[in-house]
Amino acid sequence: MTTQEALIFLATSTSQAAADAMRVFAPEDVGAGPVSVVVPGREPFEGLSVPAVMTSISYTEGAGGNFFAMPLTAARKLAEAMIGMPSDGVGDELSELELSAVGEAMNQMMAAAAASTSATLDLEVDIDPPQVVVATTHKELGIGFQGDTRTTTAVISVFGEPCMLAQLIPPGFTMRLTQTRRNAPAPSIEPEDEQIVAAVRGVPLRVWAELGRTRLPSAQVAGLGDGAIVDLDRAADDPVDLFVNGSRFATGRLVVDGDDWAVRIEEIFEHPEVPITTGGNP
Amino acid sequence: MARVLVVDDAVFMRKMVSDALTKQGHEVIGEASNGAEAITQYQALSPDVTTLDITMPEKDGVAALREIVGIDPSARVIMCSALGQESKVLEAVKAGAKDFVVKPFQPERLAQAVEKALA
């Protein structure tokens, strides 16, 4: 994968996640449009109509971040849809409640975009709290460039009006993507093996995640009552282990998927550890 | 029916949460827009349940939760978070939050969380 391909790949997945998050507030009125890489030195929001509401988040590490700008006319329609009643703002001004509603939608969208980037890169991408501003000139929509950071844009239409998501991508991110993709070629299978592979693919496996473990003297175990606290060997921010049929094969992070717990894999071991037996040393 | 303190920096989210809770028969006895205000309001109002946004200026939700639990170990607090804040959610649950809802949330999910916190 070339750097250009990596940039487009990342921008596409990020913009889809952002559009999905926005659809929660306006199910029928959000569309994901074309994605492109910005020529260095150009401002991504030059073509957008002003006044516009812009929200931005920075990644806590590296010179990256996401920016989303939405013309005021679209912002007003979105606020009306979210609040469920006609606008009480005047002219080019959004009321406090309208701005708060639009800010909230954009913030949730930016959180979803960052979570998607994090998942695509298999990398923890922490973000600073979002900033929301109403820009009346293109100058205020300026982002600026820093060093080797590249910028991508994605058009996302909201209530038929083109809005724009810009992503500042630090070189480390693209490098990570080009390397991950290069290291993971599709496995090739000989035709005669196909039947065996098909059969093996249907075998159900037990997969579980382990938060931590501990060893206790039997007397202490026997004495455990309701409400007792058992300390485990992991810190709250340590990765969890994933086991398949008893072999530890990966580590990952506990994440929330809807209302359920899920695990985002951080590292898959090339040689999974041998199965553990009950009572064996961890 | 519960007496609820609603904490979120976005006035829109406070309105949404308050409207949903009121419709479910609860009473919203106070609102706060940051963590520091949340602590003051908690001490003044002694709510049955508190909903606490995680990302807020001044003092964030997790820091406010720690102080509230310090003041009242039996405090019933529900965290509200956006996507991608799993590590903060985990921290909050460890620090004593009774439940969490992920934004954008359905009113039924909020009702369920309040019921769970009251149980």
Structure notes:
The complex is a heterodimer of chains A (282) and B (119). With 282 residues, chain A is α+β, with helices and mostly antiparallel strands. Helices cover 30% and strands 26% of the residues of chain A. Chain A contains 6 helices and 10 strands. In chain A, the strands form 2 sheets. A 6-stranded antiparallel β-sheet of chain A has the order 1-5-6-3-2-4. In chain A, strands 7-8-9-10 form a 4-stranded antiparallel β-sheet, with no helix packed on it. In chain A, a hairpin with a 2-residue loop joins strand 8 and strand 9 (247-257). In chain A, helix 1 (3-23) crosses helix 3 (96-121), helix 1 packs across helix 4 and helix 2 (72-83) crosses helix 3. Chain A starts with a helix and ends in a 14-residue tail after the last strand. The model of chain A is unreliable at 276-282 (pLDDT under 50). Chain B has 119 residues and is α/β, with parallel strands linked by helices. Chain B has one domain (3-118): Response regulator (Rossmann fold). Helix content of chain B is 47%, strand content 21%. Chain B has helices at 11-23, 35-45, 61-71, 86-94, 107-118; strands at residues 3-7, 27-32, 49-53, 77-81, 99-102. Chain B has a 5-stranded parallel β-sheet with strand order 2-1-3-4-5, sandwiched between helices. In chain B, helix 2 (35-45) runs parallel beside helix 3 (61-71). Chain B is globular, with a radius of gyration of 12 Å. Chain A binds chain B through residues 21, 24-25, 82-83, 96-97, 100-101, 103-104, 107-108, 111-112, 114-115, 118, 125, 127, 129-130, 236-237, 253-256, 258-259, and chain B through 10-13, 15, 55-57, 81-87, 89-91, 94, 100, 102-104, 109.
